[in-house]
Amino acid sequence: MTAAGEVMTETTPLTQERIVRWFADFLAEILDTSPEAIDPTAPLDQLGADSATVLVICARLREDLGARVRPKDVLQHFTAEGVARYLAGPVPAKG
């Protein structure tokens, strides 16, 4: 289930919109606010995220959406939109 209670399946596409919505729901839950109050373009630390939160984000993204992301990836794309773009985009070819 996602933070919003939506059941994810293997056939549910992992879109940028879905990931941004997940971030808004997740951060709103831990910050005790509404998802609408979460700015997806704001750096996560400005929204109250710290290093422990990044670890939880990684674990919950995998659990809720099946998205495998490392803390390093979250830190390199440090907004909800940035992480969503990274996860929804094509995986770069290894060279």
Automatic annotation (TrEMBL):
Pfam families tied to this protein: PP-binding
Keyword terms of this UniProt record: Phosphopantetheine, Phosphoprotein
Gene Ontology MF annotations: phosphopantetheine binding
GO terms for biological process, alphabetical: antibiotic biosynthetic process
All residue ranges annotated as the Carrier domain in the record: 10-91
InterPro entries membership: ACP-like_sf (IPR036736), PKS_PP-bd (IPR020806), PP-bd_ACP (IPR009081)
Entry protein name: Carrier domain-containing protein
Organism lineage string: Bacteria, Bacillati, Actinomycetota, Actinomycetes, Kitasatosporales
